[in-house]
Every structure is written in C-alpha cells, then in structure tokens.
Amino acid sequence: xxxxxxxxxxxxxxxxxxxxxxxxxxxxxxxxxxxxxxxxxxxxxxxxxxxxxxxxxxxxxxxxxxxxxxxxxxxxxxxxxxxxxxxxxxxxxxxxxxxxxxxxxxxxxxxxxxxxxxxxxxxxxxxxxxxxxxxxxxxxxxxxxxxxxxxxxxxxxxxxxxxxxxxxxxxxxxxxxxxxxxxxxxxxxxxxxxxxxxxxxxxxxxxxxxxxxxxxxxxxxxxxxxxxxxxxxxxxxxxxxxxxxxxxxxxxxxxxxxxxxxxxxxxxxxxxxxxxxxxxxxxxxxxxxxxxxxxxxxxxxxxxxxxxxxxxxxxxxxxxxxxxxxxxxxxxxxxxxxxxxxxxxxxxxxxxxxxxxxxxxxxxxxxxxxxxxxxxxxxxxxxxxxxxxxxxxxxxxxxxxxxxxxxxx
Length: 409
Description:
By secondary structure, the chain is an alpha/beta fold. It has three domains: 3-216, 3-Layer(aba) Sandwich (Rossmann fold), CATH 3.40.50; 230-335, Orthogonal Bundle (Tyrosyl-Transfer RNA Synthetase), CATH 1.10.240; 340-408, Structural Genomics Hypothetical 15.5 Kd Protein In mrcA-pckA Intergenic Region, Chain A. Helices cover 47% and strands 13% of the residues. The protein has 19 helices and twelve strands. The chain has helices at residues 3-10, 44-58, 71-74, 89-106, 118-121, 126-133, 139-142, 146-152, 161-164, 166-181, 193-207, 245-253, 257-267, 272-284, 290-304, 306-319, 330-339, 348-354, 361-369, and strands spanning 30-35, 62-67, 113-116, 183-189, 212-216, 230-231, 234-235, 342-344, 373-375, 378-379, 394-399, 403-408. The chain has a five-stranded parallel sheet, with helices on both faces. Strands 8-12-11-9-10 form a five-stranded mixed sheet, sandwiched between helices. It has a two-stranded antiparallel sheet with strand order 6-7.
C-alpha cells in the first residue's frame, strides 16, 4: 500500500494544495506539524494528528514536530467565537515542556526533529515582522478567511490585532522550517487550513518555490454528530494526572459501534488484512465488543505503555466480572487503588462505611441481608473477612451492582 493509499484508507485526507495526492508516493520529503501548547496536555484529538504523522514516518519521510511556544502566547483564534485570554510566559513554557514529553513518548520508536517556534520568533523585531512578513500578506485575502470573517462580521465578537497576526506567525513558521530543514509540506487539522495557506503563499512570494499543505478532517462521533474526544467529564487527555489510565482505557472501551471501525483505522497501526479479520469477528457478534477491546488496549498501550495497558485491562475485567480478583498482580491492584476507594481495615462494615458506600453499620447489615455485598466476586452474608482470601494483602468488596471498595487487610 502506498502512502497516499494508506492515508485515504485511514481517512486522513481532507484539504490539500497538492493537485494529485499520489505525488507524495514517489517523493522523499520533510514535513512539519505544529502542536498547540495552550494546555498542559495534548488530547486524543491531537493524538489523531500524531497518528497521521506516524503514517508519513513509516513510509520513510522526515518529520519536524513543532511545539508552539510562541504562537501559544497569542492563542489560535481558529474555531473560537471570542478572544482567548492571554496566558503567562511561565505557563506556556511549562505547557511546551509537557507537549514535548508527550510527543517524545508517542514517537519514541520513530526518527523526528522536535522544535519550538519561540526559538526563532522571540528575536523577531516589530520592524522585521512588518517588513519581512507582513509586507507579503494582502488584507483583502486575510479578512476573507472563514474564522476572521466570522469574528469581524456584523454579529461577530471582533478580533484584536494580536489574534489577527496569528496566521502571519504560523506562515513564518513554515518559511523558517523550509529554509532550515527543507520542509515542503505542512500537515494540520482542518481548522488550520487558512494558516497553512499563509505559509504556502509566503514561501512562494519570498523564494518562488512551491510547497504544499495537507489537512486531516475533523473526527466526528457518528452517534452524536459532535466532535469526537469528549466524555461526561470533559476532554480526554494524554496526561494521566488529567485523565487516569483506567478512565482513558474505559473511554475507548465504551465508544459506539457505529464509530469504532473508523477509530481503529485512525488511532492504531492495524494493517488492512488484520482490520478486515477483526471487523468480521466484530460484525458477527457485536456483544463481544471485540473491536472496542482491541482499540482500547492498543491506544492505551501507545500512550501509557504495555505494562499500564495490561493492568487497566486486567482491572476492567475484574470489575466487570470477567476475571477473578485473585488473578491480579500487585501492579494491577495499585492501578485499581487509583480508581476506587481504598481503605485499610480488618472490619468489613467499617471499610464500607469509611469508603462512603454505606452510611452506617446497620445499613451494611441490611445490605448483607439483601445479598448485595460480595468479596472477591463471592456473595457473603456476614462481616467476617477471615473467610476470604486476600490477593497481595487486599480484598475487593462490591456493594450493589457497580460500587467497589478495595480493602487492605
């Protein structure tokens, strides 16, 4: 499968300046992709963009990955109805460090160059900016950009010169990377199309050279019609302190049947042959959730490593009655302790009350009488914990259908 064929098969192609996408198949190019640092973690939306980059890398092309230390100080106005609040330099510096760590983790098996646009923009003077960059941009072209036209139109919230200049700075990024690294292709999300064109036009005007842009489409949850990558708690982050490894795994495990076939192509490196076999198995019996299980494990393994992926898979299977608690390792139990209440106790009633799953010892006794409490998957009728065998010094108590407490005995 050629590069262009794989990009099409995975659903990565949206807009492009290339007259024929197959032109990239026989080329040896260097591309760049910029990542925003307005938050202290990338999301799974950013991860999709990284997966597109990895397709290019697998086909032998050179990647320059950019953390936007300068542009994030301004804030990308694309897709925003109002002015973004400016963030401090220390905040952005920290966010860039976090972005770089996550990029290094995702691309740990790939060759790539990591850059920060603050390195070349910080010394740019106002005069240089106006004479060397601004001179090449026509106002009539800029104000017709969708996101600018929307903001400065009759019903728009307006736009400051600061945000208006964002597209010029991103165009300058492309020019700088073209001159220093020979980048001839910018990859981005569809919301960056106007900014991509700024770089393509700037390089043509400054050097008389033809470079190109390629965007990937917005990933949409087919079941809701909304942007993919949100949960009830908000965005799904790559940083485990913002979205725990278990919750990350559960998000993928619970994606809808309608969209999972697309998500597998986007978020994993599965081959077409293996994909066809997996989807045939899934379509034959969707109740097994074979596609979701594959997706959840593979994406969690990519982002958090095989050891953590194994643990959260094991923990999930125990909590949903597919595996015995005794089969968990000490690492698995440590992972479980992050997600559910963990109480040191030798008294069942005290542990359940301390965890907040019951309000009093008498309520625990009523729950026992109603056969609503189990230890390590076995229903119990009294509070004597000595009859249950701990795993690595712990017992798992379940109250009702899906409330748990980990008891360290």
